[in-house]
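For reproducibility, we list the full input for the 2-acetamido-2-deoxy-beta-D-glucopyranose complex.
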Amino acid sequence: MLFNLPRTFALALATGGVASAATLEQWRSRSIYQVLTDRFARSDISTTAKCNTTAGEYCGGTYRGIIRKLDYIQDMGFSAIWISPVTYNIPEKTKFGYAWHGYWQQDLYRLNDHFGSAQDLKALSRALHARGMYLMVDVVTNHNGWNGPADSVDYSSYRPFNDQKYYHEPCAITDYTNQSIVEDCWLGDSTVPLPDLKTEDSTVRKMYNTWIAQLVSNYSIDGLRIDTVKYVDQPFWSSFQRAAGIFATGEVLSSNITFACDYQNQLSSVLHYPFYYAVIDFLNSTTGTTAPLLSAAATFKSSCKDPSVLTTFTENHDLPRIASQTPDLSLATNALALTLLWDGIPTVYAGQEQHYAGYADPDNREATWLSGYDRESELYNVVRVLNRVRSRALALDPRYATYNIWPLYSDAHTVVFRKGFPGANIVSVFSNTGSESASLSFNISSSAAGWKPGAEILEVLTCTKFVVPADGVVVVQVERGMPKVFFPLASAVGDLSICRVVHPGGKGSGAKGASGTTGAAGALPGETGRSVARPGGIGGWGKKKKAVAVAGVMAYEMLGA
Ligand SMILES: *[C@@H]1O[C@H](CO)[C@@H](O)[C@H](O)[C@H]1NC(C)=O
Ligand SMILES: *[C@@H]1O[C@H](CO)[C@@H](O)[C@H](O)[C@H]1NC(C)=O
Ligand SMILES: *[C@@H]1O[C@H](CO)[C@@H](O)[C@H](O)[C@H]1NC(C)=O
Ligand SMILES: *[C@@H]1O[C@H](CO)[C@@H](O)[C@H](O)[C@H]1NC(C)=O
Ligand SMILES: *[C@@H]1O[C@H](CO)[C@@H](O)[C@H](O)[C@H]1NC(C)=O
Ligand SMILES: *[C@@H]1O[C@H](CO)[C@@H](O)[C@H](O)[C@H]1NC(C)=O
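The corresponding predicted structure, in tokenized form, follows.
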């Protein structure tokens, strides 16, 4: 078994604890793969079924399908999955299509049967736990959904909030900077309004708390992703978190770290949007410099109660895919490396490993099966290697998780970070110059990196090694803007496959390790010289569809999804 962490949630629940220390501790070392249940895998795991994202139809993904494709996820190194909301939604087609995403719920005590039965969901939970993996379920408490004008809402059709008294009066959010308007008014629009719950009301809170405790228990859920957190009054979250009794990461869509992390006083974690924005600013070929990342490294660690459990990401179903902004594979690799190696719990959105290029909602909600679940793709293997090296560092020294990333070197376009104590230290180099850029080199000090002269260091993305020189000056070479990820060779030997790139399709990669069956020891790192990604793209960040990021986010916010 890859992961040996015992589950003690039952205990946490029995003692009525909040996300207990143990629970938080267990999540800290996890790595999450986000799937939209309808779009990840069909029960028959076929890869040809059409899925027109524009049409807003159900495309046929199910819990059974996910179960059958868990190898694809686990082999990439993920130890948890986040699935779509499971509850019953608006059943009919709206102007914006069907509620296949799950954010327009109507009955919290009934499942969305497009995804499968209660037995199927329990089977998914069991299948994950049998692999030592965790189940994270997306939940919504801010709103319900309705197909029709706000004054036509039939409140009695909802469960359990079957009376208008549980809801705020309909009003549009006219000022996103005014929290009382943001919290009390309705998301959605005049055709699909999202009736907004009175979450400040003690009866509403009790009903939500009863529901979440049951949901967690009925399906043995290990973690929650909570939707639209900033649209709910903050005090609501303390009791909800307590009632859930498990790790919860809340969606607080803001680039303001102080604002976002304020919610960590109620919830175990929040989605790390401030990190996302820093990465996006860094990758922008028009304006990008390393300043946003340096500032992030300097400030995030002291702005949040526990930065090591924030969930980091560079894509999700609400954001333009990286490849919709730039076809450059080198920049895409940097984005993934930052996601997986920054402080926090990395979260990768299905399709990012296939270099999917969907722009905003609904284009960025492509069916994963259309990639054929290609395990030989460049980015699949980047993720695989980086998850491995992170897991290895954590296994050697759990303090890796709480060690705050810090810069060793930076210039305008390249930055080197260190994370971890000697022996479990990862030193990573990020660059925003893209695959067309000339190679460049600079020096770093081995003592700052945590390396002793004479030590052998592995670069895990190219599977090459070097020996730290006696004078302690290490010359780092960056080629084609690709990231570099250094790890002590002695620390990697427990898992020599750490940088074994499964890449049989690539020219010159040979068959070594093609199926993960040949001994990596035969191909010692440094002797293959294989490189993971061969960036071939051109252009740069921001050359395409500039500024639509903002429009995409707005569209998403309107729909509350
Ligand atoms: C996808 O759906 C949209 C909206 O229904 C439609 O206009 C478009 O023709 C469809 N595309 C394909 C390839 O079927
Ligand atoms: C926010 O909106 C509320 C409700 O409209 C209003 O009473 C309040 O004055 C506004 N606050 C600010 C700071 O504008
Ligand atoms: C949990 O299961 C119990 C027993 O089957 C059922 O009565 C209850 O409605 C379920 N609650 C949820 C939220 O699924
Ligand atoms: C960030 O959020 C904090 C807390 O809500 C607020 O006081 C501050 O003004 C915000 N900063 C910016 C630049 O908006
Ligand atoms: C980097 O280190 C090499 C080898 O020690 C040395 O020759 C070179 O001058 C150094 N470059 C800089 C910019 O310090
Ligand atoms: C890149 O920066 C420019 C200038 O600030 C901005 O207009 C553009 O929207 C940015 N691109 C992205 C993808 O954020």
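The pocket of 2-acetamido-2-deoxy-beta-D-glucopyranose (ligand 5) is lined by residues 443, 473, 475 (CB under 6 Å). DSSP finds 18 helices and 20 strands in the chain. Both points were considered when choosing residues for closer inspection.
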